[in-house]
Design goal:
Radius of gyration: 13 Å
Order of helices and strands: EHHEEH
Oligomer: single chain
Shape: globular
CATH class of one domain: Alpha Beta
Strand order of the largest sheet: 1-2-3
CATH architecture of one domain: 3-Layer(aba) Sandwich
Length: 71
């Protein structure tokens, strides 16, 4: 998924959840500048087991639609 830095900044938590299912490419002025991805095989919490806890399966279109309707 490709999203702007502004969109990621305004809904960072949602994009962290979405990153559990796919890489998020972040753009600034239309140029890719970063990638938000899962840390495979690493603990994601202090004292964790290395397993990533995903919340609900989020649909990227739903996330974007929710963000647009709140503005």
């Amino acid at each position: 998924m490709i999203v702007s830095a502004t969109e990621v900044r305004s809904s960072f938590g949602k994009y962290l959840d979405l990153a559990a299912g796919e890489d998020i490419i972040i753009t600034r002025n239309g140029v890719a500048v970063a990638r938000l991805t899962v840390l495979d095989g690493e603990d994601t919490e202090p004292g964790g087991t290395g397993e990533r806890k995903a919340r609900a399966n989020l649909d990227p279109k739903t996330v974007k639609d929710e963000t647009l309707t709140r503005r």
